[in-house]
Amino acid sequence: MTATLLRQSKTFVPNRLAAPAEAQPLDATLPALLVEGVTKRFQVGRAKRPVLAIVDVSLRLERGGIVGILGANGSGKSTLIRLVSGLLTLDEGRVEVFGHDIEREEMAVKRLINRVSVDAAFFKKLSPMENLLFAARLYGLDAGRARVDAVAILERLGIARKRVSRPVEQMSRGMQQKVAIARALLTSPSLLLLDEPTTGLDPRSKLEVQAFIEEVRTDHDASIVLTTHDLDEADRLCDRIAVLNDGRVVAEETPNGLKRLVAERHGQEPTLHNVFMTYTGRSLDEDVEEETDDAADEAD
Amino acid sequence: MSLLAHELKASYAFVERNFFLTRRYWGWEVAFLVYSAAGALSISFIGAQLGDARLLLTLMVGAIFWNYLSVVFSWIAETIAVERWEGTLEYTMMAPVHRSTHLLGSVAYAMVYGLIHTAAILVAMILFFPNLATGNADALTVVTFMVLGSFSFVGIAMLAAILPLLYVERGAQMTFVLQSVLLLVSGVYYSVDVLPGWMQVLSRLSPATYAIDGVRKGLIDGVPVTELTGDIWPLVVMGIVLIPAGLWAFGRAERYAKRTGKLKRVG
Q: Mean pLDDT throughout A182-206?
């Protein structure tokens, strides 16, 4: 099925998207993302001591690679993505995107990145086309070209042409997530930050999105940071995986390297599930249960 | 593409998006317009009931121009609040757009929307009161005060837009309270002379006080703009000071929100 989807993708997705006029070639020798010694603290309530959300994290993502970030809820995955997105300031350390410092060259970095978050953030009354057009203009794209590309990308993701003018709120969560991915891709990001992009999707949609992520990397020369709770997804897509626990990177290796580690050092079956349990001190089932409880609490 | 052209194009993104939103919420837009027209007419009928043509014009000017200023204020002040409600704030803040460009787009749409909205109310007023005596009105005075009032009000609205950045839960409510206080102290329907002393001090800090007073003098009494420097210079000073102050404060507030993680939560 995956192969079919990939074949379809070659047919439908434009290889050259509406690039911003001021786009400049990237230095191929520079890492797509360099995170060095990054720490982030939050003051929560009136507590005297700040909460450490990210502690001395370092990561390196080479151009064209996909790095996965695994961790339990509250481990700091989304905070790390926000730090790289420039949505949070760094307390310590530095972040570079293709050699551009995220604090000193904020605009240059913003032009190179885009993000898909776990909650598809849209103007719900607006249509996918209206939302994508807004994004295109923000990123300095030609509106006419962006309309054509938007339809092509949305169709590739299984959203029919007739749906692109209806309000996003009338779409299922899975479809909304696909629109979010289309919006990110429309701007041709060199570094794509995917924060649990397939959470809540049905198996077919999940496979479609995963195939699309592979295609984005292959055909559009994008480098990708992916946070996920889906260990099979991480295994399939990622070149390297970093495991976060309490804001710290407790392991970083290739998927097979991590599996080997738990087998050799801990005598366990070489699976990513065992990697997750070993390095986060909890099972994925516990994590999902906690997530469900949190959602129930919020609903209350 | 020159930097200016790029920024103008990006600011148009906000104009177009706000137009899309207005179009999608057209039912509410009609309801809001009817409510505003009904409010302006209700107040004007007080003047009609008393048979006082001057009072009628005074109330009408207050109702129409407050409608314009408040609509402009709301669109700008809710720039952040709307994105919080929709959950799009982080996405917009990530985009390669200067905050001044972002606000320019919001201001441009607010002014165009405000003019159209107010023109519709003006038409309703003319239909209900076709025999108004405005023969000696000075159009230049009216336009001058409307323009100056708009820009000085924009500065206050930019400052108000910061509140939802700083206060996730209560920020939007605070902007609403600020707008209410401006209505109360600006002499929209009465002379500020009738206010208690401490409120008269506040009235001098509101651009609406000078703008509406100037429009009334130009429209009802036909006073030329050259004789109204006492009302003009506060508006000019407020515009010059408040708009840059609003931009500066907005940048500081954004930095604070990024340091404390306040962009994330949806209020």
A: 89
pLDDT-derived band at B1, boundaries 50, 70, 90: low
* A2-299 has CATH 2.60.40.10 classification: no
Report the 3 state secondary structure along chain B.
CCHHHHHHHHHHHHHHHHHHHHHHCHHHHHHHHHHHHHHHHHHHHHHHHCCCHHHHHHHHHHHHHHHHHHHHHHHHHCHHHHHHHHCCHHHHHHCCCCHHHHHHHHHHHHHHHHHHHHHHHHHHHHHHCCCCCCCCCCHHHHHHHHHHHHHHHHHHHHHHHCHHHHCCCCHHHHHHHHHHHHHHHCCCCCCHHHCCHHHHHHHCCCHHHHHHHHHHHHHHCCCCHHHCHHHHHHHHHHHHHHHHHHHHHHHHHHHHHHHHCCCCCCC
Domain boundaries, chain A: 2-299
Yes or no, beta carbons of A87 and B263 under 8 Å apart: yes
Does residue B87 form part of some domain? Answer: yes
What per-residue confidence (pLDDT) applies to A194? 95
- Residue B35 lies inside a defined structural domain of this protein: yes
Cβ–Cβ below 8 Å for A125 and B21: yes
**Cβ contact A134–B264 (<8 Å):** no
Average pLDDT, chain A: 85
**Model-level pTM?**
0.86
Count of domains observed in chain B: 1
